[in-house]
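Sanity check. The docking grid for D-mannonic acid depends on where the pocket ends up, so I'm generating a full predicted complex first rather than guessing from homology. Inputs follow.
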Amino acid sequence: MSTPPLTRAQFGRPAAPIRLVHIGLGNFTRAHQAWYTEHADDHDEWGIAAFTGRRPTMAELLGPQDGLYTLITKGADGNSFEVISSVSVVHPASDFAQLIDYFASPDLAVVTSTVTEAGYYRADDGSLDTDNADVAADLETLRELGSNVSIEEIKATSVTTAPARILAGLLARRIAGCEALTILPCDNIPDNGKAFSRVVKDAARAVDPSVLDWAEKHVAWATCMVDRITPATTDTEREECTKVQGYVDASPVPTEPFTEWVISGEFPAGRPNWESAGATIVDDVEPYEQRKLWMLNGSHSLMAYAAPIVGFETVGDAIVDPTVRSWVDEWWAEAGSGLSVPWKEYADALVERFENPNIRHLLAQIAHDGSQKIPVRIAPTLKRLREAGEMPTGAIRAVAAWMLHLQGHGAPVVDASADRVKALVGNSVEKDAATVLEYVVPSLAGDTELISAIVEAANEILSKK
Ligand code: CS2
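Predicted complex below; grid placement will be based on this.
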């Protein structure tokens, strides 16, 4: 008998009504927000309509499975399998009219997003990068609609960047006369609610500033820290599913046992009882977010650029190497010294998570989009300590490793701003170090001692080849 496909009728629970929209359906959200929604005690009332990023692949894979997929939690001592049913429906990003229909529905209560750092389209000062060709084209499309636009007219158009998609949704929601809504971005960006609202509001200013007053009254921006290490899916997981679960899952998600979600903000139209699944609701996310961004993501980026040069492919292989581990420890001590919350036990727990032998987390994957990651993960510590007159070797090494990566060492450069950041290098190593430093912490540009220290750190990394 052939192995059956994964279907809702046979393996899942009934689709819950759609009250959540997610933008950026990928493995992370499937292991995180969708898992919390699945585990909320009121999950029958909260279904997710999830939209892919530009590539429609995930919708193509999950559509025939009614949005279902298997979460494979990979602990050091083995795997556990769970069918997640909280995604009621999946859409490719090209289903723009459908996105607008959800926004125009009074049932919609929360919009979450995982669009990556690059998906915010921020200029260096955090405002919307209107010089970006995709952003400019989207703003033009929405401007052309004029102020007397109807929902049907919005649906008949299409925009691709996340800030413009949210704005188009808000324009439709205003016309529909629907009110309260919370937007909860879930990307690794400090104060992600504020960062996302800034670019959406900038888009509104460029298209129809009158929507700003309406949004001020009706749209709440929440902020959160998200954490769960979730590698890409491989054939191994697909085979494990068939073997253990007895059905064919086109796209199971591997993840680690650890998970954390710390949220702050208002939810005037309600939200799933995510606390019942273990989420923490706080007034101020910042201390948790800094600890996670600097300690976990910062060390991830350090390893992603330095460790492939030494010869490692995964986090698990890199962290057990004494040299890499000493680099990570040094970075943690520097980053930790700027935190207002305890971090030593957190660091010990990170080592255990990184060492998990069942998680194959590729350094090359983490290396993507360093242009967006280094400034938020490494720069604050480098700036703070250097301004205090110190020479923080751990942070310097991370910058040096990124410079080497841009120069062509280690994993290939995959970056939304590849042209810009590749142009930072290609001269003498001193010149490269100076331009990279200026990009990472503009206020430290021209610090000759620091530039020499970056060169020295780069040579040290290369010597471990
Ligand atoms: C990683 C993150 O790819 C990356 O940049 O640092 O995806 C990391 O695995 C998650 O933030 C863990 O919560």
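Relevant for the grid: The pocket of D-mannonic acid is lined by residues 188, 227-229, 296-297, 300, 365-366, 373 (CB under 6 Å).
Also worth noting: The longest helix spans residues 286-310.
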